[in-house]
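Known limitations

Files may contain more than one protein. Parsers should not assume a single record per file. Below, a two-record file is shown to illustrate correct handling: read the sequence, read the token line, then continue until end of file.
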Amino acid sequence: MTATDDGATLGTDTSNSVIGLRFSERLPSWMGSIRVRLTLLYSILLFGLAAVVVGGIYAGLSQALDSQPISQRDRQSRVFETEAGPIIIQTEREVENELAEFEREVNTAALDKLRNYSFAALGLLFVGSLAVGWFVADMVLRPINRITGVAREIQATDLKRRINLSGPNDELRDLADTFDEMLARLDQAFEGQRRFIHETSHELRNPLAVLRTNLDVVQSDPTATVEDYREVSEVMGRTAERMTALVDDLLLYARQEAPDHREELVDAATVVTETVAEYRASAEAKSIRLLEHATPRSFVKGDPTALRRALANLLTNAIRHTPEAGRIRVASGSEAAWVWVAVEDEGPGIAEGDQDRVWQRFWRGERRRTKLGSGLGLTIVRQIIEAHGGQVQLLSEPGRGSTFVLWLPIAAGSIAPGERPPSTGEIDMSLLDEATLAAAPVE
């Protein structure tokens, strides 16, 4: 079909829609109810069908009476026998005419009665069909009325109401269930938004309180020295840095909530190499050895910028919690239909009871509350990886560091719905042994 044909079809559809809209606007107000229109439609269809049936019976009976007249029977002249001989009272022709006239009168009377009874029956049928149609329309529209009633009762701040429509598993039941599912998703989204606003307000209020307290203290002290002001300014600078990091992470988190990332073929080894290179100076500033081994040609489909951000957040956490002169290892490889990227640090580790909580917004362990961080880093990591169809895993013991693993579907593989990646213990972190690193080819 050409563009001209498409334009013509679109123009025709638009014209038909406009005509239909204008026609509906001209209908009287009492025709605006679907129940009325269904009743009229049902009655007209039933009345039309009955009229066709009655008309067919009437026409068939008329034709049958015409094709089999009584006057076709054997006719003889009427003769009266007397002593003088037979006297013809009526001739054969006269008898035939008399019978034909009688037949016409009988047929006409029968057809008139049939017609009158038919009209009366059709009238009663039409009235009855209106009543039945009104009742049937009420039964059909009752679930829709219930949906409408629940929708009117729902407030913007309360989405707990549900229709819970019972009855046969038909189209209206599907509509009600779909509406309930939509309400559940909206309720969950609004609840998450309210919780996010509350948590964000709390996280922003803390550094603001620190700023305000330090300013009040130094301003209310008439004996404050230049050194006191310098110390306060340093505290305020660190607090402002923390607020900046928090705001930046909030913006990134908000963007990831409605992701619009581009999708292309990405080599996980390239992501690891480039991201590690960016953070090597930060690691060296704490005398931390940042070891890397990336298996080349481990391709995934995704947004390279977002994947670098996820790995960058893991490296930021690792450098922040690894003590000076410690070690961080980063590796990547593939296992079955998955590509994995792992970051291992020598930090304080995470207790088993807290390992599920580290992915929550603004969660920071007791030891981590004194360190700079927004509490959104790992949340963003999980958000990015799950948006790419992957999963995140954590292996950690208190006092023995942590290993974070990112699992992504391999580009050439086919991941069935619900298929889980291998366990964290199956990745080969021995790739980062000193001897392996020394022998690794340099591109």
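...continuing to the second record:
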Amino acid sequence: MPFDGIVTKSIVDELTSELVGGRVEKIFQPEADEIVLLVRAWNKSLRLVMSASPNYPRIHITEVVKENPSSPPVFCMLLRKHLNGGRILSFEFNDYERIIGVVIEATNELGDISEKKLVIEIMGRYSNIILLNSDNKILDSIKHVDSDISSVREVMPARPYMLPPAQDKLSPAIVDTSALLQELDASNKTVDKFLLDQIKGFSPLLCREVCFRAGIENRTGTASLSEDARMSLKEALDSVLNEIKESKYDPCIQFDDEQHQKPLDFHCLNISQYKYRLSLDSISQVLDTFYSSRDNAERLRQKKSDLYKVLNTSIERCNKKLAIQEETLREVADREKLKLYGELITANIYAIPKNTQSVSLLNYYSETGDEYIDIALNPNLLPQENAQRYYKKYAKAKNAFLHTSRQLKDSQKELEYLESVLQLLDNCSAMHEMDEVRQELSEQGYMKLKKRHLQKKQTQMSNPLNFTSSDGFDIFVGKNNKQNDYLTLKFAQSNDIWLHTKTIPGSHVIIKKQGREIPERTLKEAAILAAWHSKARMSSNVQVDYTNVKNVSKPSGAKPGMVIYVNYKTAVVTPDKALVDKLMA
């Protein structure tokens, strides 16, 4: 991971310069594994983020402001109790390990001044944030590690704090490159792996950088290096170590593209192995820029995954319900026979002997008039009782048919709705859009919102997608069912054009006429947008229905996004991403 021991030293240097002497004004816990300290220092307020995320653990000053839960978590309350109003004394850092201690002097409830230490351990999925008292005992941590999880090192309240096992490597401050490189022949490793295993605080990125500066392929075996290559390696390693010792920082992000849209790595040193790079003023800016987008994308992916799980579970349940209902309808498909049996028994009631198990009776409803039907009887019942038994079976089967038919239609509509939400979920690209889907599913009874979501203030609905056709017409596309309802039922005028994929879940699309006739090219482009924003995105020859908005209506009690329409025409198009990108307003 790019957040290596060298970056850790650089962030400690920066935080020491920016925050030591500052006061902790507020403490927040916006995520289960993330703490934010609002610090007043040097006549300005700065936000210090500490994240124990398994994917993106870090500590730096941030410009990102996240929404906080209405009820702070227990760990956040504990931090407020012990650290609010406290003064930051120092940032502790030990020999290029990715562990930072924030030493804070605060006043306790009795008015006594005491020191506390907030430790962040940046160790991938084992990352943690731990509050210690002045005796180095754990008050609490954002993640508990008991003996069931680790028999070597518990992280639990009231336990003494122990540092993670130290790495058996050389500190960059004391590396003798000449002596180190004498071990190349015996290592039997690639050059980058040799450096990674020998020098504390070095990441794979930095090891590759040393090789790049030396002009050596990083996967080259150490034993096969020529004498010239060894000298080049020594010079490159000396250069990097000198930059570290003298804190010659050049915070930068490395990209895979010239437009700086695809960040690959970052570091506090000058990384020259990548063609595209962006230098920033501070390592905090680098970390904030690099991690905020990735962290948001990861959390969005996780929350989207949670909603997919809810939807897929509901769809599976709905399909099971449909299967049962279809089986019930198959079972009562011959219900009219039961009625016929009752009528034939009644018509021949005096001709049927008692205690018989079956009887063959003329079916006077048949077309030929000479068809006989074998009817099973209960020998313990009188003929009229057998007739009543068949009438009751018929009535029960008829009621089951009527009731199940209604249920089947409801289930089919429910399945159509759920599949539409599932498809529209793909369009979500921001957290507030996810919240709209989450809110919709809660209102429809498919999930319960957590307390923080229930108490959250109602926010304005996000905007639908807006495109401009080649002829200059505005085209709007709903990103969720609430937007679909809004576009079709409130936003659009009666003569605007409404489009939707035929019998396939997708977005509502509106072409604003604005008093003009809509050309065929615009109609086709809008149909392509409808096909692209549907379940048929990867298909070809997709049928898209279109009509005036006045021909679209919402049945009473219909779920969000569900409408019916008449007097429509159908276009056949193939989704085209290049066109979609071109039309984006």
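Parsers that stop after the first record will miss the second one. For reference, the second record is described as follows. The chain has 15 helices and 22 strands.
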